[in-house]
Amino acid sequence: MKGKLIILFGIDGSGKSTILNMLKSSGLNNTICTSCLTNAIFEEELYRAERILNFSRADVFSHEFKHVLHIGSVIYNVFNEVLPLLNSGTNVILDRYTICIKLFTDIFLTPSCNCLSKALECLPTPDLGIYFDTSVNTALQRIKERSNRTGILPHYSESKEALIMKKRGYEAMIPNENYTILKINANQNIDMVYSSVAKILGDICISPENTI
C-alpha cells in the first residue's frame, strides 16, 4: 500500500512552515514531514558559483532562468526522495508543492514562460491538500514579526501587492485542482491552526495515543 501525499499551502505568512515543524515533533505515525524545496540541488550549484565567482545572481540571471533551475530541483527531489518514501508505504507531508510553483509562474514570470509549469505534470497528484486561508493583513504582520526576529528582509514576493495577487490566484486555482483540498482558518493563533490541521490528518497519519 502506498503512502499518502499531503500538501500544505497558502500565501506567505499563513503559518504553513511553522505548522510543518510542529507536526515533525507531534508523534505522527509512519509519516515524514519535509519540503520539496529542501536541498535544491540545481539552485545550490548557482549559489555556489555566486560565492566563488563573487557575483550576484540577480544581476546576471533572469527570473525565468532561476525558475527553470527551481522546477528542476523540485522534480529531482520528488523522484529521488519523496516517491521512494511513498512507494515504501510512508506518508509524506510537504510544505508547498506544484500548485505553489504554478502560482508563482503565473504571477511573476512573463506569460510566454507559463509553459514551464508543464514539466511539473510528471509529479504525483496529492491525496490531500490543506489550504491555509489567511487574510493579507494577518500574513503581513507575521512576515514583519519574522523579519524582526531573524533580521532577514522580506522577499519581493511578500509585499502586500504580491500577497493580494497570490491569495486571489490560489482561490481561482483551487476549484480546478483534481484532488481534495480542505480550507482551514489560518488567521487563528498558531496553536489553534495546528489543532485544525491535526484534526484533518486524523486517521491518516497521527498515532491514536497522540491524537489531539
Describe the structure.
The chain has helices spanning 16-24, 41-53, 57-60, 63-87, 98-108, 136-150, 160-173, 190-205, and strands at residues 5-10, 31-34, 91-95, 128-133, 181-185. By secondary structure, the chain is of the alpha/beta class. It has one domain: Rossmann fold. The chain has a 5-stranded parallel β-sheet, sandwiched between helices. α1 (16-24) crosses α8 (190-205) and α6 crosses α7. The longest helix is centred in the middle third of the chain and has 25 residues, at 63-87. The chain starts with a strand and ends in a 7-residue tail after the last helix.
Features:
Rossmann fold, alpha/beta, 12% strand, 212 residues, disordered C terminus
Give the structure's gist in a few sentences.
The chain contains eight helices and five strands. By secondary structure, it is an alpha/beta fold.
Secondary-structure map:
Elements: E1 5-10, H1 16-24, E2 31-34, H2 41-53, H3 57-60, H4 63-87, E3 91-95, H5 98-108, E4 128-133, H6 136-150, H7 160-173, E5 181-185, H8 190-205
Parallel strand pairs: 1-3, 1-4, 2-3, 4-5
Number of strands: 5
Major beta-sheet overview: 5 strands, parallel
Rg: 17 Å
Can you identify the CATH superfamily? P-loop containing nucleotide triphosphate hydrolases
How are helices and strands ordered from N to C?
EHEHHHEHEHHEH
Q: Which outline best applies?
A: globular
The CATH level-2 architecture is identified as 3-Layer(aba) Sandwich
Number of individual domains? 1
Uncertain stretches: 206-212
> What oligomeric state is this?
single chain
Helix content: 40-55%
If you average the pLDDT, what whole number results?
90
Write the CATH fold name: Rossmann fold
Terminal CA distance reads 26 Å
| Widest sheet: strand ordering | 2-3-1-4-5
The helix-and-strand class reads: alpha/beta
- Please give the CATH class: Alpha Beta
Q: How many H/I helical runs?
A: 8
